[in-house]
Write a structure and sequence with these properties.
There is one protein chain. By secondary structure, the chain is of the alpha/beta class. It has a domain of 181 residues: Rossmann fold. It is built from 10 helices and 9 strands. Helix 5 links the parallel strand 4 and strand 5.
């Protein structure tokens, strides 16, 4: 699987990936996921959007990501937003964290990039007994005129077409956006499915903010910089007016519990 270096678009990523809905944290709370006083690690944390949401709920949270550039942005946001969240360089397969240290592991918008068998083994190693793994994905939905125009323009620059990211491209069947085989892998490796659900929400973008959001997705992050800039220029010119775009999004959440 081709890995994407999101560090190439770290600045846009930091600006564009704050679109986590309030309803996500509320939905976890009503399902018995309490962060207050818990030790949590967010794997594939990127620029720290989810870690900050978790820290607001009084958890002791750590972020782990392989990209130095994204972690640099996360640390910078610590300063500007008055957080003290520790961020560590590491991968889902080799976090560098101690055994049996965490009550909760979260993964948002990243599981499809992992070597999943190795990642599952690592999650089991760092979680405490009966620990919780929460896998989350979210993104904008097709259908709106802005999204369809974006697809039309980007398809001219992305060879092979606008395929789903990472392992999703290889999956033949998906359930609420999650490849069906993931559920069997989790079960086979000692994680019981406790809940799986979907949230729908809207995000408002200015034209500039939408362009930054598009730049941070894998289709463009994997392009050569000249091609990426050409695609962004074409998209900017194709979107007329300066009104706010309201883009429908979907968030899918899977809560798993490590078997005793």
């Amino acid at each position: 699987m081709k890995q994407i270096d999101f560090g190439q678009v770290a600045t846009s990523y930091a600006k564009a990936r704050e679109d986590i809905p309030v309803s996500l944290m509320d939905s976890l709370y009503v399902r018995g996921i309490f962060f207050d006083g818990r030790k949590v690690v967010d794997i594939g944390c990127g620029t720290g959007a989810l870690t900050r949401k978790i820290a607001m709920r009084k958890a002791e949270v750590t972020g782990v990501d392989p990209s130095k550039e994204l972690l640099h942005q996360a640390v910078a946001l610590n300063r500007t937003k008055n957080y003290t969240i520790p961020y560590l360089e590491g991968t889902s397969e080799n976090t560098g964290l101690d055994d049996s240290q965490f009550d909760i592991v979260t993964v948002m918008r990243a599981w499809h990039w992992f070597d999943r068998e190795k990642a599952i083994a690592e999650m089991k190693r760092i979680l405490k007994e009966n620990g919780t793994l929460i896998v989350i994905d979210s993104g904008f939905l097709a259908g709106s005129s802005v999204v369809e125009k974006t697809f039309e323009v980007l398809s001219r620059y992305v060879s092979g077409g606008l395929k789903p990211a990472g392992a999703k491209a290889q999956s033949k069947q998906r359930i609420n956006g999650f490849p069906a085989e993931w559920f069997d892998e989790w079960q086979r490796n000692g994680f019981d499915l406790r809940d799986f659900y979907k949230l729908n929400y809207n995000v408002s973008f200015t034209k500039e903010a939408w362009i930054e959001r598009v730049e941070s997705i894998s289709w463009l992050a994997g392009l050569e910089i000249d091609v990426r800039n050409e695609a962004l220029k074409a998209l900017t010119e194709s979107l007329h007016g300066h009104e706010t775009f309201v883009i429908p999004h979907e968030c899918n959440v899977c809560i798993l519990r490590l078997q005793a």
